[in-house]
Every structure is written in structure tokens, then in C-alpha cells.
Fold this sequence. Notes:
This protein is an alpha/beta fold and about 270 residues long. It has eight helices and nine strands.
Amino acid sequence: MSIAGSDSGGGAGIQADLKTFAALGCYGTTAITAITAQNTLGVQAIHAVPVSVVEAQIRAVMDDIRPKAIKIGMIATPELALAIGQVLRAYPEVPVVLDPVMVAASGDRLIAEETVAALEESLFPLSTLLTPNVDEAALLVNQPITSLEALEQAALVLQQQGCRAVLAKGAHLSGDALSDVFVDPQGAVKHLPTVRIPTANVHGSGCTLSSAIAAYLALGLTLYKAVVAAQTYVHQALRHGSHIRTGQGSGPLNHFFEPIPQKTDELD
Length: 268
């Protein structure tokens, strides 16, 4: 299940999450937290869904379909963060991947300090994995990050402050050779190197990565193997979408470059 905002342009948020789930052979469900008027050029408007409606969506899905993994994306208010945490505490066996959407591509801050505090209090302890990018990690540890070493230190701080595991994404650092930093629940650090793909079509890549990790967890992979598999999937989706023109700005990934048939429980 994805608990996140809707992107009318189809490249990020709920839409990217559902495409990713389907491409990896999973059945996706949703709880929509906000509706955005958005395209490849940016966001024009945001309408928050009432907290009670978000809660009802989560309970409706959990009471019937019971997802095997949950991805959480856009959370706009502290009230919503606290409410989601309260609901999910009833399902401790379901792994949660939290993608803390806090900073826009322009560098602008998207959520207030009180919402960040609510995320840290209510959702960080429930999350199997936190997936901040460089700007989000810098905001969370309250210091600039300009190197891979600083990113690693930020990931360690976040893990020590209560997150079970952290995947700090290094794509916003300079240079063609990239590396994400994974800190496991025991505090061990692994660097996951990759190569920057020359493309403008990167809209929704963070959403896609976190939802791919959730999908692989639902399919039974260990956390580390799910992270590695998701990184490979996103890299291929970026490469296969680099030549496609969708809109006038930053286009989406090619989620369906090699779709996998749906895997699900058989009827008795």
C-alpha cells in the first residue's frame, strides 16, 4: 500500500507507486493524503485530504486486503503524521518504507518544523527503512551535506536517533559516480555505488525507489536485498525512459520497461 499524495501528471506520488508495484508483480492499494495539480513543470496547487478520510482509507485496506508492505510519502501536517502512526501501530508485522518528502527539487522547504517533529515522533520508530535524499537528510540532522562522508555521518545519526535502518540517497551530490549509503538495523554501513544517467526524466525517481523497496519486501526479500534490487530497477527505469518525451519539463521514468506478472496468493 502507498500512503501518499496524488500527482495529476502521473510521474510521482501515488501514480508512480502504483506503476512500480504493478511493474514488479505486486497488487497496489492506496491511501491518498493530498491531491496535487501538477505536471512535468511543477506543482500548481495542493489540496489536503481530511485526516479522518486518510485514516478511513488505511483501515479499509488493512481490514480486508492486508498489504505485505507499506510505503509512506507526502505527509503535509503534524496531525496527519500522528494519525497515521496511531493507525499503523496496530499492524507492527507489516514493514514500512518512509520516504520523507520535505524539500522540493528547487531546494524549497515543503513542510513546517512541527510536521518534521511529528514525523520523527510518530512515524520514524514505526518505519523499517527511512529513505531521505541529501537535502532531506541535511534538514533532519540540521547541517549541510556536500560530500559522501557527510552523507554517511547523517545516515548514522538518523539510525542512532531511532530509525531502524536508513538509505540516504546521494544523487544530489556532485559528480558522475554516485553512491547511496545504507545503514542497517545493527548500525553497519554499506555504500551502494551507481552511475549518473544523462537524462532530464527523473521526476518521481525517489517515489519509485521507495515503492520498489516496499514491493520487494512484500515479495519476501530481506531489507538489504530489497534495497539493492530497487536501486537496480530504478536505474533501468531511468535508462529506458531517458529518450522518451513526456511534457515540457522533467519527465517520468519508464516504469514498465520489463513488467513482471502479478504474484499473489492462490484461492483455496
